[in-house]
Amino acid sequence: MRILAFFVLALLVFSCSKPELKTGTWRGTLEIQGQELPFNFRIAEDFSKGYDAYLKNAGEELLLDEVTVSGDSVNMVLHVFDAQLRAAVEGNTLNGFFTLNYNPGYKVPFHATFGEEYRFKPTDTTANAKNFSGKYQVLFVNETDTTQAIGIVNQSGNYATGSFLTPTGDYRYLEGGVFNDTLFLSTFDGNHAYLFKAVKNDSTLTGDFWAGKSYHQSWTGIRNENASLPDAESLTYLKPGYETLDFKFPDLNGKPVTLKDDRFKNKVVVLQLFGTWCPNCMDETKYLSLWYDNNKNRGVEVLGLAFERKPDFNYARDRVNKMKAKWGVNYDFVIAGVDDKLKAAEALPALNTIVAFPTTIFIGKDGKVKHIHTGFEGPGTGVYHERWKERFNEIINELLTEDQVSKK
User: Fold this and answer.
1) Distance (Å) of CA 1 to CA 6, 8, 14, 150, 161
2) pLDDT < 50 positions in the chain
3) pLDDT at 16
4) Long-range interactions of 22-26: CB distance < 8 A, separation 24+
5) 70-129: pLDDT as tens digits
6) 101 in Cβ contact with 77 (< 8 Å)
7) 142-183: pLDDT as tens digits
8) Tell me, what's the pLDDT at 125?
9) Residue 41 to residue 318: CA distance in whole angstroms
């Protein structure tokens, strides 16, 4: 009887000591390269399973529906990414780490405070904020890379949002503020952590860009409403002598898939070179998923070619299956290889190169490659995203009527 009483008492003590994860707004920070990268998130109670969390970047909220509290710790799986935030719950604070599970050495200190709604901490120079709004021709540089970009900054008072569009994609939704002559922008989407700072002198910006644990570039931006980038449909193309793509990759059940399969005959085919680790691919997949559901009866197929973090079929299949289930994606996928651009190009030898994930390849009803678009202009880029959607549908409509035009 005493033993039973002891276990009941222990259970009561354990239950009473379980920490409460407070619902509402939190301000998180990641410690990267000697910098503090802030982001905001919201915890909401889910009566069926405990909690949900929402990563907040400008106008976007990303649902984290795998939040568990065990003992004194909380673990937040970062939606489709193979990554997590794990921290000790200590009243109004969380203290732990951001980890990438596919990279055992990747561990970044994570802290959060409940009730702080700002992103970058306001300073006493708030009243003297310069106006950074506008479009900029940007150049990112370091010892190994030089990248052209278009910078977009939208400022209202001290609050600022924006993005950078590069030839290989965009930096999604950036959010921050302006204090005196300095612009601060950051984003954390669950896999990539980006921090930008810049000072303004007349119409020129000079700043720094930090990404994750180790990547850094300096950057300059010159105000230019006509800022431009190389044509995204000119970077990847077929080598001389090629008109089609020839491959054989396993689908998620291990069955070989080729473009010669009956389901692709006499149809327009959109090939999406992507990975579940890639935020721009995440944005494109969400768009293609809804678009496919609304257009699949027009004689169009979409096929995703997954290039994942590990050369293990089961791992890659599980990542893609999770993504499909979370977002209700109804088009098919194959496992094409690992997330190495050189190896991806080797897997598709008809292409001159693969510059970015995602890359979108449009194939006509005759099986010939018609257009190749490098990168993706995501919803965080505003008008550029709208232009991408217009161009996507223009190409599809052109290819669907191509055989009719040729017969006239």
Assistant:
1) 9, 11, 20, 74, 64
2) 1, 3-16, 405-408
3) 46
4) 22/92, 22/114, 23/51, 24/114, 24/115, 25/114, 25/115, 25/116, 25/117, 26/94, 26/112, 26/113, 26/114, 26/115, 26/116
5) 999 999 999 999 999 999 999 999 999 999 999 988 999 999 999 999 999 887 655 667
6) no
7) 999 999 999 999 999 999 999 999 999 999 999 999 988 899
8) 55
9) 27
**What are the tokens at 51?**
């909690």
Burial bucket for residue 23 (CB in 10 Å: 0-12, 13-18, 19+): middle
- The closest alpha carbon to 24, from 2, 46, 44, 51, belongs to 44
Q: Which residue has the tokens 């407070």?
A: 22
What residues are paired with 320 via a beta bridge?
none
Q: What are phi and psi of 78, to 5 degrees?
A: -90, 75
332-338/359-363 β-pairing = unpaired
Q: What HEC string does the chain produce?
A: CHHHHHHHHHHHHHHHHCCCCCCEEEEEEEEECCEEEEEEEEEEEECCCEEEEEEEECCEEEEEEEEEEECCEEEEECCCCCEEEEEEEECCEEEEEEEECCCCCCEEEEEEEECCCCCCCCCCCHHHCCCCCEEEEEEEECCCCEEEEEEEEEEECCEEEEEEEECCEECCCEEEEEECCEEEEEEECCCCEEEEEEEEECCEEEEEEEECCCEEEEEEEEECCCCCCCCCCCCCCECCCCCCCCCCEEECCCCEECCCCHHHCCCEEEEEEECCCCHHHHHHHHHHHHHHHHHHHHCEEEEEEEEECCCCHHHHHHHHHHHHHHHCCCCEEEEEEECCHHHHHHHCCCECCCCCCCEEEEECCCCCEEEEEECCCCHHHCHHHHHHHHHHHHHHHHHHCHHHHHHC
Pair of tokens at residue 201: 């002198």
Quote the pLDDT of residue 129: 78
* One-letter amino acid of 298: R
Residues linked to residue 209 through DSSP beta bridges, in sequence order: 196, 217
